[in-house]
Design brief:
With 303 residues, the chain is of the alpha/beta class. The protein has 3 domains: 8-75, Arc Repressor Mutant, subunit A (Orthogonal Bundle), CATH 1.10.10; 78-165 and 272-300, D-Maltodextrin-Binding Protein, domain 2 (3-Layer(aba) Sandwich), CATH 3.40.190.10; 166-270, D-Maltodextrin-Binding Protein, domain 2 (3-Layer(aba) Sandwich). 40% of the residues lie in helices and 23% in strands. Strands 3, 4, 5, 6, 7, 8, 9, 10 and 11 form a 9-stranded mixed sheet that branches. The chain has a two-stranded antiparallel sheet with strand order 1-2. α1 (8-20) crosses α2 (23-30), α1 crosses α3 and α1 packs across α4 (64-91). The longest helix has 28 residues, at 64-91. The chain is globular and about 75 Å long. The termini are far apart.
Length: 303
């Protein structure tokens, strides 16, 4: 390796392709063209002197040499991240970078605090990734971001989770639904209703399934939908009931066509959490943002 002439750009291109399994996806993430990615990987491969990828049935796989280099790249990225944090610490809060990953519903309230934070600290570059829970857990396992905001922290990862605000889950129905005029609805009556749910693995879905199982009430899932917006439209169209975060409901357009039902046991108050990898050395920027979140928590509350 001592005689090899490689660049950080080549290693980053290789690592991105290896992680995503696609040259085009890597180009999108790196904001460069696919030919540019291919050129960087090809030049790196020439320096190594062995193939790094092999193509099988239009898919790419790492060779043994590629797998070895991927491990080296992961170590390098971790080392480089620590270096960036150290530089940011030396510079104080005049400049720095903060990366946050939030689950889909988080996009309804996290931006309300990001704006004032960026105004207060204009030299800090903030990047927020909005992803579903499965994708967020992948990013967390790879330690890709400074911190994560989610509703149901995982039990199988070595993490620290800090409660941020209450996340009330409510039962909603079309305004014309027979239950809409009821002043009190027993939980057991939900067994007769059809529900519209997020995909399996979402935080809300996990919580709702646990609740119905604990109450020994069957959950009739009529349809799975990939976003809160789609669920809201489906509820308004009379396709079924839904259980969703009040944060999401209050920020969706057209919410006047659906109503919150007064069901026994609801709202179900769970929490939003700020999650970090246990043992991760947080930068001054990350610690400052966490303190800012707690100091300005009112900005996050449902309107």
């Amino acid at each position: 390796m001592a005689g090899m002439r490689v660049t950080l750009g080549q290693l980053k291109a290789f690592e991105t392709v290896a992680r995503l399994g696609s040259f085009s996806a890597a180009a999108d993430e790196l904001f460069i063209t696919q030919p540019a990615v291919s050129k960087k990987v090809r030049m790196l491969q020439e320096e190594v002197g062995m193939p790094l990828f092999e193509h099988v049935s239009k898919r790419i796989y790492l060779t043994d040499a590629g797998e070895l280099l991927r491990r080296v790249c992961n170590e390098w990225l971790s080392t480089w991240s620590n270096f960036e944090q150290s530089i940011a610490d030396l510079q104080g809060l005049k400049m720095g970078r903060l990366t946050i990953a939030v689950v889909t519903t988080g996009k309804y309230f996290v931006p309300r605090v990001l704006g004032p934070f960026c105004t207060a600290y204009p030299g800090i570059d903030v990047a927020m990734e909005v992803v579903n829970r499965d994708r967020l857990l992948e990013r967390l396992a790879r330690n890709e971001d400074d911190l994560y905001i989610m509703g149901v922290p995982p039990d199988d990862l070595d993490i620290d989770s800090d409660p941020l605000i209450v996340n009330p889950l409510i039962v909603v129905a079309p305004s014309t639904h027979p239950l809409a005029s009821r002043r009190r609805i027993r939980f057991e009556e939900l067994a007769d209703q059809k529900f519209l749910m997020r995909e399996k693995g979402s935080g809300t879905r996990i919580t709702v399934e646990r609740l119905f199982s604990d109450r020994q009430v069957p959950l009739n899932v009529q349809m799975e939908l990939g976003s809160n917006e789609a669920i809201k439209q489906a509820v308004a169209g009379g396709l079924g009931l839904a259980i969703m975060s009040r944060h999401a409901l209050n920020t969706l357009t057209g919410s006047d066509h659906i109503v919150e039902l007064n069901v026994q046991g609801f709202p179900l108050n769970r929490h939003w959490y700020v999650v970090t990898s246990r043992g991760k050395q947080l930068s001054v920027v990350a610690n400052t943002f966490i303190r800012y979140l707690h100091d300005h928590v009112k900005l996050l509350e449902p309107e």
